[in-house]
Amino acid sequence: MLTTLKFIGKSQIKTTEKLQKDLDTFGEVAVENGMRINPGKSKAIRFTRARVKNPLGCSLGDQKIPEASSCEYLGIILRSDLNWVGQVNYTAQKAWKALCNGRSQKRK
């Protein structure tokens, strides 16, 4: 199951508080419905070009959610600094492999 919580705001404190409130609600609803959530498989990522001073510090239940600088979402590599270099490199690498594989098939 893939779940995404997204918040947009100029105030880092308010946005973090909203995110934590929704994570708490999400955890409560999961318990009520007999679902288990593995916070170890979760990542928190903040998309901004600004320099980040404070970590997000989000938690689900009693476990902290680690903050990441990039993540893969629906097959696209997203970076916290809104840079596409990871996705471009991944796509170029796949194209190169396909090209090399095609050449070796042609020689046979």
What does this structure look like?
It is a single chain. It contains 2 helices and 4 strands. A hairpin with a 2-residue loop joins strand 3 (70-73) and strand 4. The N and C termini lie far apart (43 Å). 41% of the residues lie in helices and 11% in strands. The chain has a two-stranded antiparallel sheet with strand order 1-2. Strands 3-4 form a two-stranded antiparallel ribbon. The protein has 2 domains: 1-68; 69-108. By secondary structure, it is α+β, with helices and mostly antiparallel strands. The chain has helices at residues 12-32, 85-107; strands spanning 59-60, 63-64, 70-73, 76-79.
Taking pLDDT < 50 over at least 5 consecutive residues as the criterion, the unreliable ranges are none
Total strand count, please?
4
Largest sheet: 2 strands, antiparallel
Task: Return the domain count.
Answer: 2
Kindly report how far apart the N and C termini lie: 43 Å
Total count of helical runs of at least 4 residues: 2
Strand percentage lies at: 5-15%
Helix coverage percent of residues? 40-55%
Q: Tell me the quaternary state.
A: single chain
